[in-house]
Specification:
Elements (H helix, E strand, L loop, with lengths): L13 H11 L4 E7 L2 E6 H18 L6 E5 L4 H12 L3 E5 L5 H10 L4 E4 L2 H9 L9 E4 L13 E3 H10 L1 H14 L5 E6 L9 E5 H14 L7 E3 L7 H14 L2 E4 L6 H8 L3 E3 L2 H16 L3 H22 L6 H22 L6 E4 L6 H9 L4 E7 L4 E5 L12 E2 L4 E4 L4 E5 L6 E2 L3 H7 L6 E9 L6 E6 L4 E2 L5 E2 L1 H9 L4 E7 L6 E7 L1 H10 L7 H5 L2 H18 L10 E6 L19 H7 L1 H8 L4 E9 L5 E9 L1 E2 L12
Parallel strand pairs: 1-11, 3-4, 3-5, 5-6, 6-7, 10-11, 12-13, 13-14, 25-26
Antiparallel strand pairs: 1-2, 8-9, 9-19, 14-15, 15-16, 17-18, 18-20, 20-21, 22-23, 24-25, 26-29, 27-28
Helix pairs in contact: 1-2, 1-9, 2-3, 2-6, 2-7, 8-9, 12-13, 12-14
Length: about 650
C-alpha cells in the first residue's frame, strides 16, 4: 500500500520535522531536563544542533542504514536526541526498559541484533558488560553519565558528548553523507522498534514505520487541538509506545515542549513545577494521587476538612457539567467559583494539574469515583483505548462525550469491528508493519486486509456508539456451570479501592471464583499509623486481622455490584487471601508495564490456589524473591484464607 501521498513530503520523517521545528519554532523551548535540582532548557534550534552533531558522530563510528541502536535510560533529552540521530542516519532506535535486568536486556539486544547501544550510566554499562558474550553483534556502547567510567576499557565504550564532539570536528567530512541519508528517508522506513511487555511469553519486536507514527501523531494532535504552546512531562518508560507517541511523535509534529523529571522519586514535585497542559497517566497514578489527597485531609484540621468535603460535594454535582459546557444555574456557578478559590485551585496547584488542558488515562479501567473526582475539579480527563501495535490510538473520548465506563469512539481514520465471539478488531494508518523475525505471530495478529486482533472482548453501545471493553478475550471463559468468567472486570472493581494495589481472580472451569490480593502499602500503612498499629514489614501488615477485615468488606461490596450484572453474576469472589509479598516484575509476576502474568502467578502460587479451593483456613508458602541488587532470596509465611459473602441469585417468576 502506498503511503507517501498521505503525508506532506516535507513532514514525512522525524528529522524533517526537527528541521521544520528548528526553523519555525527556533527559539521556543523544545526540551527541558531537571538535574541537580535545576531545570535546563534547549530550544528547537539548539536541539537540532545536538542531534546533528550526534548523527555525524554516529557516522564516524560507522553506523549504517538499517542498524539497530538500543536506548536504555530514564527520560532525558539525550535519549530523544539519540533516537532522532539514529533516524537521521537511517538506523532504527530500539528503546529498552531501563529497569530490565541484564538477562532481559540481553534478550532484546540479541533478538534485534543491536550493533550500537546508547545508555545512561555505569549501571546500564555494567548490565551490558555482564552479558556481552551473548551479544556478538554489539560493536559500540555510548554512555551519557561519565561518573564511575574513568577506569573502564574504552576500546568500544564512548562518552556521549565525545561522540558529539567528534561529529562536530568531522562535520566537513561526513555532512554530505548525512545530507544524502536525510534526503533518502521515506515514510515507509522503520522509525522505531518497540518490544511488547511479554504478558504471555517472550516480548515481540513491533516494527513501526514513520508513516505509522506520524500519521497517528497528526490525527491525535488535531483531535485534541495540540500545538507548540502545549507541554508534557516525559516520565513514562521510554521503551513503552505511549512515551514514543507523546514525547517523540506528537512533540515533533506539533513542536510542543518535552519536560524530563530528575528521577522517578521527584516526578510528583517536578510535575508541580512544570504544570503541563497535556498529560497522560495510567489509572494507578490517578488513584495514588487521590489516595494521598484523602490521607492528607484526614490529618487536616476540622474546619479545613469540613470545607473540603462541602465544596467537593458541590464540585461533583456541577463540575462535570461546567466542563462539558452544559447549562448550570448562576448560583451553582458562583458557589463553584468560590470553591475554586478556596479549595479546587490550591489543590490543583499542589497536584501540578492546574494548567492541564487535556488529560488521558488508559491501560486499565479507572474507578468511576476517581474519574468523577478529577473531572469535578475542572480537569479534562478522558479515556483512550490502544495498543503498541496501533501506535496507541484505537478509540478515544471526544470532549463533551466523556464517561467512566467506556473508552470512547474510534480515533480518526481508525476502523473498529466486533467479531462474532466478541473480540475487538481494528485497522488504521497506525497499524504496525510486522513483528520482527516473527512472521507467524504477525500473521496471527494482522490479516491480509490489515485488520488486527486486539485480544480484548468488548461491544459498542447502541445509543452512544462508544466502545466498552469487558476483559482480555483469552481470559473470558466459562465457569463450571457455563456462566461467563471475566476476571479483569472483577479485578478492576477491586482495584478501585485505595487499599488494594493488585488483584488476581481465578475461576475458569470451576464452581466459584477466588482471589489473590495485594494491599497498597502507602494507603494501608497510613491507616495503621493513624490507628497506632505497629508493623515491621509488608508481610506483617498484610496479615493483620483488621486489614483482612477491611479487604473482606471491599470484596463483599464488589460482590454486591457484580451480582447486579446477570451475565457476570457467577464472577463473585467466594474466598480470598492477601499475598505475603507484592507482585513484582523482577520476580516475573508482572510485566515491566505492570500487567499481571496470570499463568505464571497461577503456576508459581499453585499451593495457595489449592488452599483456596480445598476449604483450608490457612496455607503455608515459601517463595523465591529477587532483591533490588539482583540477589535471590526467599520468604515464607502462613496466610489466612477468608470467606466473602456472596449474593444469592434472584429468580424472577413470570407474572
Amino acid at each position: 500500500m502506498t503511503t507517501v501521498a498521505a503525508l506532506d513530503s516535507a513532514l514525512d520523517s522525524f528529522p524533517k520535522l526537527l528541521v521544520r521545528n528548528a526553523t519555525k519554532f527556533g527559539n521556543r523551548p523544545a526540551y527541558r531536563e531537571k538535574e541537580f535540582g535545576i531545570w535546563q532548557s534547549w530550544t528547537w534550534a539548539e536541539a537540532r544542533e545536538e542531534v546533528e552533531a550526534l548523527a555525524l558522530g554516529f557516522l564516524d563510528l560507522g553506523m549504517k542504514q538499517g542498524d539497530h541502536v538500543a536506548i536504555a535510560g530514564r527520560n532525558r533529552p539525550y535519549f530523544y536526541w539519540a533516537m532522532l540521530a539514529a533516524q537521521y542516519v537511517g538506523a532504527v532506535p530500539v528503546p529498552v526498559y531501563q529497569d530490565a535486568v541484564a538477562e532481559e536486556m540481553a534478550y532484546v539486544l540479541d533478538h534485534c541484533s543491536a550493533k550500537y547501544a546508547v545508555v545512561e550510566d555505569q549501571e546500564q554499562v555494567d548490565k551490558i558488560l555482564d552479558v556481552q558474550d551473548d551479544l556478538p553483534n554489539l560493536k559500540q556502547v555510548l554512555y551519557v553519565d561519565r561518573r564511575g567510567m574513568r577506569k573502564y576499557d574504552h576500546t568500544t565504550l564512548h562518552a556521549y558528548d565525545s561522540v558529539q564532539e567528534a561529529g562536530r570536528v568531522k562535520r566537513d567530512e561526513f555532512q554530505p553523507e548525512l545530507d544524502r541519508r536525510y534526503a533518502a528517508a521515506t515514510p515507509d522506513d522503520t522509525c522505531v522498534m518497540l518490544y511488547t511487555s511479554g504478558t504471555t511469553g517472550r516480548p515481540k519486536g513491533v516494527v513501526m514505520s514513520s508513516y505509522n507514527m506520524l500519521k497517528t501523531a497528526k490525527n491525535s494532535a488535531e483531535f485534541d487541538k495540540l500545538s507548540e504552546r502545549d507541554s508534557i512531562l516525559a516520565y513514562l518508560p521510554m521503551a513503552w509506545v505511549g512515551d514514543f507517541i507523546f514525547s517523540m511523535a506528537q512533540a515533533c509534529w506539533t513542536g510542543f515542549t518535552v519536560n524530563c523529571p530528575e528521577s522517578a522519586e521527584t516526578m510528583q514535585h517536578d510535575l508541580r513545577e512544570i504544570g503541563p497542559t497535556y498529560f497522560f497517566a495510567p489509572p494507578r497514578f490517578f488513584e495514588g494521587l487521590l489516595t494521598s489527597v484523602m490521607i492528607r485531609m484526614e490529618d487536616a484540621g476540622k474546619i479545613k476538612r469540613r470545607m473540603f468535603h462541602k465544596y467537593l460535594e458541590h464540585a461533583k454535582r456541577v463540575g462535570p457539567d461546567l466542563l462539558d459546557g452544559k447549562p448550570v444555574s448562576f448560583g451553582d456557578k458562583l458557589k463553584y467559583q468560590i470553591g475554586k478559590y478556596l479549595v479546587y485551585g490550591p489543590l490543583l496547584n499542589t497536584l501540578g494539574l492546574s494548567k492541564m488542558r487535556v488529560g488521558y488515562t488508559a491501560g486499565e479501567a479507572i474507578g468511576p469515583e476517581i474519574f468523577e473526582f478529577y473531572r469535578s475539579l475542572g480537569i479534562n480527563l478522558k479515556q483512550l483505548y490502544g495498543q503498541t501495535e496501533a501506535c496507541v490510538y484505537i478509540t478515544q473520548q471526544p470532549d463533551g462525550e466523556v464517561r467512566a465506563d467506556t473508552v470512547g469512539v474510534p480515533s480518526p481514520d481508525v476502523e473498529v469491528r466486533i467479531s462474532d465471539n466478541g473480540e475487538v478488531f481494528y485497522r488504521s494508518p497506525g497499524v504496525f508493519q510486522s513483528y520482527y523475525k516473527n512472521p507467524e505471530s504477525t500473521a496471527d495478529t494482522k490479516d491480509s486486509e490489515g485488520w488486527v486482533a486486539t485480544g480484548d472482548a468488548g461491544f459498542f453501545e447502541k445509543d452512544s456508539g462508544h466502545l466498552r471493553i469487558i476483559d482480555r478475550a483469552k481470559d473470558v471463559g466459562k465457569m463450571a456451570d457455563g456462566s461467563m468468567f471475566a476476571p479483569k472486570y472483577v479485578e478492576n472493581k477491586l482495584k478501585f479501592f485505595p487499599n488494594i494495589l493488585e488483584a488476581v481472580v481465578f475461576g475458569a472451569g470451576r464452581d466459584e471464583c477466588t482471589a489473590f490480593i495485594n494491599i497498597d502499602l502507602t494507603a494501608v500503612g497510613n491507616w495503621a499509623e493513624r490507628n497506632n498499629i505497629a508493623y515491621a514489614s509488608y508481610q506483617e501488615l498484610a496479615g493483620h486481622p483488621q486489614v483482612l477485615d477491611t479487604i473482606q468488606k471491599h470484596l463483599e461490596e464488589v460482590n454486591a455490584s457484580v451480582a447486579q450484572d446477570e451475565m457476570l453474576f457467577g464472577c463473585q469472589v467466594h474466598r480470598f487471601l492477601v499475598l505475603h509479598k507484592e507482585l513484582d516484575a523482577d520476580d516475573g509476576e508482572l510485566t515491566r508495564t505492570r500487567k499481571v502474568r496470570r499463568k505464571i502467578i497461577e503456576e508459581k502460587f499453585d499451593v495457595l490456589l489449592t488452599g483456596l479451593y480445598d476449604g483450608s483456613d490457612s496455607v503455608f508458602v515459601e517463595t523465591e524473591v529477587t532483591y533490588e541488587d539482583g540477589r535471590k532470596g526467599s520468604i515464607s509465611a502462613t496466610l489466612a484464607i477468608r470467606n466473602a459473602a456472596v449474593q444469592a441469585r434472584k429468580i424472577l417468576e413470570a407474572a
